[in-house]
Specification:
The complex is a heterodimer of chains A (171) and B (389). In chain A, 77% of the residues lie in helices and 0% in strands. Chain B is mainly beta and 389 residues long. The radius of gyration of chain B is 22 Å and the shape is globular. In chain B, 13% of the residues lie in helices and 37% in strands. Chain B has a domain of 112 residues. Chain B has a 4-stranded antiparallel beta sheet with strand order 3-2-1-28, with no helix packed on it. Classes of the chains: A mainly alpha (171), B mainly beta (389). Chains A and B meet through helix 1, helix 2, helix 3, helix 4 and helix 6 of A and helix 1, helix 2 and strand 18 of B.
Chain lengths: 171, 389
C-alpha cells in the first residue's frame, strides 16, 4: 500500500473521530479547518506518523498542538475570544439543561491548554502520562492544568447549585 | 461535588461530540494539497505547478521600493514602484511595535509591556506562551508573554536553548567542553522546572574544532543535534519517552546530512551549504531529505501558518513563496534600501520584519505586509538587539 492509499484509508476511518475531538477542543466553527490542517501536517510526515508508537495518538497530538498553536497565533494577532455564555442564554435555558449548557460554556472559556487537559481526560479518557505526551509537557504540568481547570469549573458549578436552591435565581 | 462535576463534564463532552454534525471529508483534495509540497520536493521539472501554488498563496501586490534586479537568476515576481513611494527608512510611516518579542539592550519588549533582564540577551527563543531569553554566558530566562513574569532556568547553559512548540520541554547543552550532553527540562506554569534529564549523545567531540551542536526541535518532538565536522546528525524522539523523556534508545543517527550545516527555524529543518545556500528538509525514516531545491539565499520558514517561506535576495528585496521554498514563482516586493545589513524575520502569518543595522549604534525594525508590500517603522533599537525566532 503506497503512502497516499495508507493515508487516505486512515483519514477516512478517523475523520469523524478527529473532527468530534476538534469540536470539543476548538469549537464547531473551527473544527473542520483545524482537523484538515492537522491531517495535512500528518500527511507531510506520514512515514514518521506510521512509525510512531501509536499513529492515531500521534495525529491527535498534531491536532491538539495545531489548535493550541493557532490559538496562540490568534492571540498574538490581537484577536479577541468572545464569551458566548450570556445572562440571556442562562435565563432562557430550560430546567435540566442549565447545568450542561453552563458546563460547556465554562469549558469553552478555559485557556486552551486547560481545555485540552479536560477534553483529553474526560472525553478521551487519557491518563495524566498520556495527556503529558500529547501536550508535550511534564505530568506535573498536566496536574496543574487539570487542577486549575477543575477549580474554575467547580467555582462556577457552585454558583449554579446555589442558584437552583430555594431563594436562588431559579426559585 | 467534585465527582458529580467530573461526571457532568464527561457526559456533556460526550454529548457535544455525539451531536456534532460531521462534514464530509474530501480525502482526494486533502492529498492534493499535500502533494503540492511533495511536488516541489520531487522537484525541478514541475515549475509551472509551483508557480500556480505561489499564485494561490499570495496575490499580486504592490511593491514599495525598487524594480527587480535584471541579473537575478530567478524569475521575477510581480512588482511595481508607486510614484512617491518611500525610498529611505525615515520616509516610512511609524506603525505599532512588532508582535513578536524583541529586545534592545537589557530590555525585552513583550506585547504591551517591557521586562528588564540582568543581562543583554543574544537570543529570544519562542516557547509556547513564553519566550526564552539567553546569553552567551549561559543564562536562560523564561518570560511569560502575557504577564512578563520571569524565571531563571539555568545560568550554566552551554548553548542557545531550544524548546518544543508548546514550551513544555526546553533543552540546552551542558556546559562541559568536549561533551555531548543535552540537558532537557520539563517546564510548567510560572517557569517552574518539573523534570530534568541529562542525555549523552553518541558523539565524540573534541574541545573546539569539531563542536557538538544542539540545533533545535523539528516538528512536535524531534530534538536534533549534530556534528557538522563529522557529517553526523542525530534525532532524539521525545515522543517515545511518554511523559518522561527517556534516554538513548530513542536516539537515531540520521542519514543524508552531507557537508551541510543544520539550523532549525520555526520547528523546520533548514540545511546550509558552504556557499550559503539553504534547503528546507524533512526527516523521513531516519534520513534527512531535501524538500525543495537549494535556494542561494537564507530561507526563513514560518509565515502563513507555516505554509510559506521568505528570504532576501541579492537585490535586497523580500521574496515570499510557498513552503518548502521553491525558488520559482515567488511573490516579491521591495522596500527602502539603505545599504545597511538587514535581517529577515516573520512577525505573523502575513507580515515580515526587516531589521536594519545602521552603523554600530542603532537598528530599525521595519514591518512589511506581504499582501500589499506596504512597510512601516515598527521599532528603533540600540546596537545590541534580539528578535524572537
Amino acid at each position: 500500500m503506497d503512502v497516499d492509499d495508507s493515508f487516505a484509508e486512515y483519514a477516512a476511518a478517523r475523520w469523524a473521530a478527529l473532527y468530534r475531538l476538534a469540536v470539543l477542543l476548538a469549537g464547531a466553527d473551527r473544527a473542520e479547518d483545524v482537523t484538515q490542517e492537522a491531517l495535512l501536517r500528518a500527511y507531510r510526515s506520514w512515514s514518521r506518523v506510521q512509525d510512531a508508537w501509536s499513529p492515531d495518538a500521534y495525529v491527535k497530538k498534531i491536532l491538539v498542538n495545531t489548535i493550541i498553536t493557532e490559538g496562540k497565533r490568534g492571540r498574538r494577532a490581537g484577536l479577541v475570544l468572545v464569551d458566548r455564555s450570556t445572562e440571556a442564554d442562562l435565563d432562557s435555558a430550560e430546567d435540566g439543561v442549565v447545568d450542561r449548557e453552563l458546563i460547556w460554556g465554562q469549558v469553552e472559556k478555559l485557556p486552551p491548554r486547560q481545555r485540552a487537559v479536560i477534553v483529553l481526560r474526560y472525553y478521551e479518557d487519557l491518563s495524566e502520562a498520556e495527556i503529558a505526551r500529547t501536550l508535550d509537557c511534564a505530568t506535573g504540568t498536566v496536574k496543574a492544568h487539570a487542577s486549575a481547570a477543575l477549580r474554575t469549573l467547580r467555582a462556577a458549578s457552585a454558583e449554579w447549585l446555589d442558584a437552583e436552591r430555594p431563594g436562588g435565581r431559579h426559585d | 461535588m467534585t465527582d458529580k462535576l467530573e461526571d457532568l463534564v464527561a457526559d456533556e463532552l460526550r454529548r457535544r461530540a455525539a451531536d456534532a454534525d460531521v462534514p464530509p471529508l474530501a480525502v482526494a483534495h486533502l492529498i492534493a494539497r499535500g502533494h503540492e509540497a511533495r511536488r516541489v520536493r520531487a522537484r525541478r521539472t514541475l515549475t509551472v505547478v509551483a508557480a500556480v501554488v505561489a499564485a494561490a498563496l499570495v496575490t499580486v501586490v504592490v511593491a514599495v521600493g525598487h524594480s527587480d534586479d535584471p541579473g537575478s537568476t530567478r524569475p521575477p515576481g510581480p512588482a511595481a514602484t508607486p510614484t512617491g513611494a518611500p525610498r529611505t527608512l525615515s520616509e516610512l510611516p511609524s506603525g505599532p511595535p512588532p508582535r513578536v518579542v524583541y529586545s534592545s539592550g537589557r530590555t525585552v519588549h513583550l506585547s504591551g509591556r517591557t521586562v528588564e533582564l540582568p543581562f543583554v540577551p543574544d537570543h529570544l527563543v519562542p516557547a509556547g506562551d513564553a519566550v526564552l531569553a539567553s546569553s552567551a554566558r549561559g543564562s536562560v530566562v523564561w518570560i511569560d508573554r502575557a504577564t512578563g513574569a520571569t524565571a531563571t532556568l539555568t545560568t550554566t547553559a552551554g548553548s542557545t536553548p531550544v524548546a518544543t512548540l508548546t514550551g513544555g520541554w526546553v533543552a540546552w547543552l551542558k556546559a562541559t567542553k568536549g561533551s555531548a550532553i543535552v540537558v532537557l527540562v520539563g517546564v510548567g506554569s510560572h517557569g517552574a522546572i518539573d523534570e530534568r534529564f541529562e542525555q549523552r549523545f553518541p558523539a565524540k567531540p573534541s574541545c573546539c574544532s569539531d563542536p557538538f551542536e544542539l540545533n533545535g526541535i523539528v516538528g512536535a518532538d524531534q530534538l536534533i543535534a549534530s556534528m557538522p565536522s563529522q557529517q553526523k546528525a542525530w534525532s532524539w524522539s521525545l515522543e517515545t519517552g511518554g511523559s518522561s523523556a527517556r534516554p538513548a534508545s530513542s536516539i537515531q543517527l540520521l542519514g543524508g546530512l552531507g557537508q551541510q550545516g543544520i539550523t532549525v527555524i520555526d520547528h523546520t529543518l533548514v540545511l546550509t551549504d558552504a556557499a550559503g545556500g539553504t534547503t528546507i528538509a524533512g526527516l523521513f525514516n531516519a534520513r534527512i531529505e531535501a524538500m525543495a531545491d537549494t535556494n542561494p539565499f537564507p530561507i526563513v520558514p514560518g509565515g502563513a501558518g507555516g505554509q510559506a517561506v521568505a528570504y532576501l535576495d541579492d537585490g535586497g528585496k523580500v521574496r515570499v513563496g510557498p513552503f518548502p521554498g521553491a525558488a520559482v514563482g515567488n511573490h516579491v516586493f521591495g522596500f527602502p534600501q539603505t545599504g545597511d545589513p538587514v535581517t529577515l524575520f516573520w512577525d505573523d502569518a502575513t507580515h515580515v520584519l526587516l531589521v536594519y543595522t545602521i552603523g554600530s549604534t542603532r537598528a530599525t525594525i521595519v514591518r512589511c505586509a506581504i499582501s500589499t508590500g506596504s512597510c512601516e517603522r515598527a521599532a528603533e533599537l540600540g546596537p545590541a538587539y534580539a528578535v524572537e525566532q
